């Protein structure tokens, strides 16, 4: 396969977890950004549709009180909603390697339409494997997903920003064909 940024393959591609990251960042205390990622995820491109899920419990936050807060109903509600999911409706690549992705994101059992933009490539790697790569960014308002907890700062302003930047840097490898039945 030669690089062709305007064609989304219709074969099945599975996530290469070693070369992929799904994470987010949000303003924290009005002076910096808090960043984290999901260490366990499944992503698939099949028939031109990109789908994925991330296990909320896989956030690598080790400080027990902070981890408990992030996994609680104030934020992800992990006990009731153990996964964040996404399904694309449209993948719109352009000749310059850019792509617009539209779909539905579900967090805490709440599904909302989202748009992401970034880059897309399809190549044969150095080992002869067919790969596709997406580097996508979307900004969501966490209140749209029921994450309304807030703590005002003493001098004014919010402890945690409302807008969350979601970033997905994905490499997917073409799955081998299914054996005949």
3D structure, described in words:
This protein is mainly beta. It has one domain: Lipid/polyisoprenoid-binding, YceI-like (Lipocalin), CATH 2.40.128. The chain has one helix and ten strands; from the N terminus they run βββββαβββββ. The chain has one helix at residues 64-71, and strands at residues 13-15, 21-28, 32-38, 41-46, 49-55, 83-93, 98-107, 110-124, 130-141, 160-174. Strands 1-4-5-6-7-8-9-10 form an eight-stranded antiparallel beta barrel. It is elongated. The mean pLDDT is 95.
* SS element count, helices: 1
CATH level 1 class label: Mainly Beta
Summarize the main sheet.
8 strands, antiparallel, barrel
Q: Pairing-aware structural class of the strands and helices?
A: mainly beta
Mean of all residue-level pLDDT scores: 95
Q: How many independent structural domains?
A: 1
Number of strands: 10
User: Using only CA atoms, what is the Rg?
Assistant: 18 Å
Mind telling me which CATH architecture this is?
A: Beta Barrel
Distance between the termini: 28 Å
Percentage of residues in strands: over 45%
CATH homologous superfamily grouping: Lipid/polyisoprenoid-binding, YceI-like
The oligomeric state is single chain
Residue share in helix = under 10%
**Poorly predicted segments:** none
Order the strands across the largest sheet as they lie in space. Answer: 1-4-5-6-7-8-9-10
The H-and-E topology, N to C, reads as EEEEEHEEEEE
Shape: elongated
Tell me the CATH topology.
Lipocalin
